[in-house]
Amino acid sequence: MNEYIIGIDIGSSKICAAAGKIDKHGRMQIMGITSAICNGVKKGIVVDIDSTSESVKQCIDGLERMVDIKITDAYISLPGGISELVWNKGVVAVASEDREIKDNDVKRVIKASKIITIPSDKEIIGVIPQQYIIDGYDKIKDPIGMSGLRLEVDAQIILAQTTVVNNLFKSIEKAGINVSGIVFQPLALSEVVLKKEEVERGVVLVDVGAESINIYSFEGGNLVSISTMSLGGNTISNDIAVCLKLPFSEAEKLKIKYGSVGRSSVNNDIKIEVNADYNNKIHVDQDILKQVIEARVEELLCIIKGELKSNEHYDKISGIVFVGGGFALIKGIEDFSKDILQKPVRVGSPEYIGAASPLYAAAVGAVKDAADSMKDKSLRIKSEKETEGIQREWTKERNKHEEKKENSSGFVSKLKDFFTDFF
């Protein structure tokens, strides 16, 4: 429990890494977080292994200096945009004689749900159990310890292209990091930026990255759909660069530092000094910068609205949560988006000291998901040991009781034999 858990999120413009630790009270704490620029990934897919590997190395080196440990293993956040969800059912008979459902029964039913026909270029990377059914009774979240004859599971099978996953793994491993496991990004994000009530009621998580927008719909406590668009925050930066005749890197800095939309409290009358090409400094009117950003953000929001309206779950959406560095950091984005999307909007940030930014949500989510899995496993082992202890005590008491009964019955039978002989 004292070991660090490392989570890595590989995006199209940045690689973020977080280090977490479970404290003595069983709560997860983020001990360090850092990021590095990445040019080897496009729309969530690795296009240059060497470049991506070098960026991972830089990011991990920064995290090692921060937490003062040597990092060799990490959990990887896999983007939902490169994945596909397929529904399937698994059915098994409960193995134990007393019909109590054990961990092995759950593993068997999950394995049974993976028996599906998949294309040759894809592979199963995970399973999301939606509900368990015991002897016809559904909506069971955790069947372990319950009794039954037949165990079923309704599950979502996560598929991804084999080459995409392999190239991602190669990039990580080339940086000297072993992949401890894959964390599905939509679920990782939901654990750190969404409230349980939101997920139950119906909410949409919009992850706006540099080159893609991933839309994840949740309803009834489950992830119900994924959609992806090949647009992102880079289109805003590109507009700034073209309109104001600036290098792309300077345009990106302007967007992050001074970007605002709507009726924000920012003073738009000031001039901003920017380094242009050939070391020339120019002054940019902040009001013009705002107009450029607003025009593109409005267009992106209208595209997102169209995508949401085409979703069958649109009417059940109670709110929309933005994450990622695409435009979640732009001032006034919540009110501006609310007017266009006609739904309550907020920016989602992890509630951890030092990591409270929508930029770090996926990396922190990967750590949280891995930490919860470890904690659940240790609690289950502890529970099994306690149950074994109780069973041993109960067996001892039963044996003592039976021994007393035998002794008592032996005395009575001897007394009976004595009286029989006497008479």
Give a verbal description of the structure.
By secondary structure, the protein is an alpha+beta fold. Among the domains are: 83-162, Dna Ligase, domain 1 (2-Layer Sandwich), CATH 3.30.1490; 229-347, Nucleotidyltransferase, domain 5, CATH 3.30.420.40. 41% of the residues lie in helices and 28% in strands. It contains ten helices and 18 strands. It has helices at residues 49-67, 103-113, 162-174, 185-193, 196-201, 234-243, 248-258, 286-309, 333-341, 361-422, and strands at residues 5-10, 14-22, 28-37, 41-42, 45-46, 73-78, 83-93, 122-134, 137-140, 150-161, 178-184, 203-208, 213-219, 222-229, 271-275, 281-285, 320-323, 345-347. The strands form five sheets. The protein has a five-stranded mixed sheet, sandwiched between helices. A hairpin with a 4-residue loop joins strand 12 and strand 13. The chain is globular, with a radius of gyration of 28 Å. The termini are far apart. Self-interacts. Interacts with FtsZ. It comes from Clostridium tanneri. It holds the Pfam family SHS2_FTSA. This is Cell division protein FtsA. Residues 5-193 form the SHS2 domain.
Task: List the defining traits of the structure above.
Dna Ligase, domain 1; Nucleotidyltransferase, domain 5; five-stranded mixed beta sheet; disordered C terminus; single chain; 423 residues; globular; alpha+beta
The first-to-last residue Cα distance is: 74 Å
Identify the CATH class of the domain at 229-347: Alpha Beta
CATH H-level homologous superfamily name of the domain at 229-347 = ATPase, nucleotide binding domain
What percent strand? 25-35%
Relative helix content: 40-55%
User: Which sequence of SSEs, written as H and E, runs from N to C?
Assistant: EEEEEHEEHEEEHEHHEEEHHEEHEHEH
- Which term fits the overall shape? globular
**Biggest sheet details:** 5 strands, mixed
